[in-house]
Write a structure and sequence with these properties.
Length: about 160
Amino acid sequence: MNKNWVIVLAIVVVLVGGYLFLSKGGTPAVTENQPAQTSSDITSPGGGTPVEAGMPIKGAGNVVEKEVIRELTVVGTNFKFSVNEIRVRKGETIKLTFKNEGGKHDWKVDEFKAGTKILDGGQEETVQFVANRVGTFEYYCSVGQHRANGMKGSLIVE
């Protein structure tokens, strides 16, 4: 009888040991507190830490920076613009909508080769350019004597 108890005890120990080994040795179960990793997560090399897409990764030489687009609106009326000074940062893409509210006018800035065509009153046009040079640049209306009569302003790139 003593021998039977030893065999039963050995079988129980093997079963319990096998159960514990299999339940702990596999991959851990996902709990509700663990955030799911999405396809937009990027794993840093060797670190295994998720970072947001577009964030610089230490040691990575091929980081893509997010393009900044600055949207502006300038209104033109007789011999003046609604804005006399525009400030932007170097490297920004400028998307400028020029709305003409009277007469024939346009909007130009020579240093960035940007400008609208001559528009009739009530028309508008959008131009886009990159402010890739630091400095103060004059924008103006090129129609007749409008620039000489004060239809101009300053584009300041910092």
